[in-house]
């Protein structure tokens, strides 16, 4: 019998969930890529797995935002937003503490939740998860951009058909026509082609490496040796960075836990669950986001105290230190800290009071009221020594967690990390949550077009990369270069290359007017290879040199 499908709200979105099982502890399953909690009951292998697991735990299933029976969205969602979906479902089912069972990408958000809300997590169990989904020298197991592009192309042209290469996910079931037919249907019912492409691009941006050290709950990581989708080295990499984590390697090459040697997987999970410590065990340390701000003026101007308190408390923050021109506050999650910081920046800007803020993450007591540590003092001092008026900067870890649609991030400067002295990149962050439709087209393009909106967002995300051009834009949009040329020309009257340069110049012009940087700094910030080339392009577009704009203002 299929459990009753129910709904709860996560923000303004409806999230579908089910509850079943008779075990003494709660287990929340966080699915990978896409899911459909209605259609999963049509797969005997998956049903058998969960019914057996339901003997040792009360199972909570849900479809994450944008998939299955939950509200469909066309925008990218951040890991933080997906984490809030877990909390909403737990609240709706009166689950005070639960085991999180994350599969594939679902393991990434489960890891973040475990570090952020450890007192709501009994344990973390994962199967076939990754820490990054984009190749780099320090993480060489992730797919390259070319490999990801092939996935984008597959989704665009063959979504839900027999040409999805699903056999690579479950080689042991490749000749099982009934199972493979169900799997294709499961993906089709889990997301539309557009939603699937958006989710895949979101996954490409996942990077949880910086938060792994903060996971302190009991952890079981499972993976098959020859998993094609997620390399075994990735599981070992993650296990090495979570203190006390148990890593179990199974024979086989299936990425789906309910195919292949499922009984071994099930028994490992059961044993781990039965051996968990008492549920009264409380984790006093958790991942916290710190916001500090400073008024940068020699005049007798200070912080707007009433505005400060309202902005912090409205976003659920707690003020730790407040002086005439300086404050420090803590938040549960980065997005709320950024929103509070932007609100304060805008208020002080209106009053012509130069203000700057920095945001970083740390491990702290759950009450968020502990005094500042040596590391806090180091981070605040280091960032304040480099920060410029009227801007907010965040660390790389925060940028990775919030890659999505809420904020714009551009490289700003770097500091050395506390004690390890590794290079930590800082990013200038601005709000783009209110730019849908109305401000997505600030360049005189009167015709609304969702494809153009996507293109503009992609260009915005690569403004500081002087290697970004038509070829990379083609890969990011997932369409052919010919189609890209035609659609952009129809809507803007410009070629893709001209559009990229046009947007860079307009952004640079705004920065010159605001006097946020020198001409040379602005040139590099917006992707120009040299100040002289920037000046030449600027003069051609606006009939005035950048230095003349600065002098005029």
From TrEMBL:
<keyword id="KW-0805">Transcription regulation</keyword>
<dbReference type="Pfam" id="PF12833">
    <property type="entry name" value="HTH_18"/>
</dbReference>
<dbReference type="InterPro" id="IPR029058">
    <property type="entry name" value="AB_hydrolase_fold"/>
</dbReference>
<dbReference type="InterPro" id="IPR018060">
    <property type="entry name" value="HTH_AraC"/>
</dbReference>
<protein>
    <submittedName>
        <fullName>Pimeloyl-ACP methyl ester carboxylesterase</fullName>
    </submittedName>
</protein>
<dbReference type="InterPro" id="IPR050471">
    <property type="entry name" value="AB_hydrolase"/>
</dbReference>
<keyword id="KW-0238">DNA-binding</keyword>
<dbReference type="GO" id="GO:0043565">
    <property type="term" value="F:sequence-specific DNA binding"/>
</dbReference>
<dbReference type="Pfam" id="PF00561">
    <property type="entry name" value="Abhydrolase_1"/>
</dbReference>
<dbReference type="GO" id="GO:0003700">
    <property type="term" value="F:DNA-binding transcription factor activity"/>
</dbReference>
<dbReference type="InterPro" id="IPR009057">
    <property type="entry name" value="Homeodomain-like_sf"/>
</dbReference>
<feature type="domain" description="HTH araC/xylS-type">
    <location>
        <begin position="453"/>
        <end position="552"/>
    </location>
</feature>
<keyword id="KW-0804">Transcription</keyword>
<dbReference type="InterPro" id="IPR000073">
    <property type="entry name" value="AB_hydrolase_1"/>
</dbReference>
<dbReference type="InterPro" id="IPR020449">
    <property type="entry name" value="Tscrpt_reg_AraC-type_HTH"/>
</dbReference>
